[in-house]
Amino acid sequence: MRRSPEQGRLGVGRQAGAETRERLVEAAARVLRAEGYAGTSARAIAKEAEVNSALVFYHFGGVDQLLLAALDRSSEQRMAAYREAVAEARTLEELVEVANAIYRADLEGGHITLFSELVGAGIARPELRAEITKRAEPWIGFVEETLERVIGGSPLARLMPPRDLAYAAITFYLGVNVFTHLDADRSRTEALFDLVGRVAPRARLLTVRLPRRRTPPTAG
Prior knowledge:
Layout: H1 5-35, H2 42-49, H3 54-60, H4 63-86, H5 92-109, H6 111-122, H7 126-151, H8 155-159, H9 162-182, H10 187-202
Helix pairs in contact: 1-2, 1-3, 1-4, 4-5, 4-6, 4-7, 5-10, 6-7, 7-9
């Protein structure tokens, strides 16, 4: 079945619109990483994407919505990479090693910069804060799921439930990454990860799963 000229124009228009959205999302991420939230405007993003600034509002409705779309894209990519990275971890020591590698990749890749800049902006903007909080929940769930797989059923899990530990891990990780950007000397952060690496093997006994209690037979 042949397409009409009008259908062809619509198809080209949709493709061009999708390409413009893609360029804007990528440009928004680059500008936010380089200039921070305060220096990120529709004009700056449009200049980076080499498009008219009105297209920021046409395609996304505003700068914040575009920045959230950039964060969503980065989060989707990082989540896929994280799931693959932790899939083979079976012990707490292995999980710490993976976390160390993830930290270094995030530091160089700039994902945490996107997140931390929007977290900072959300302090003064309740509507943005609600969106950031919503986007943090899948990460807490991911860490909880991973911890449950590695230490679930162990004395450590009873002492520190995976859900609580996941929240603490996300809070710690965000704080460490933000501080790393403030402090050019990364030696203290490196020392902290080294400390966690040394402590993990000593916690091995706490991660041994306890045998399930047998239910006593009923008399009869």
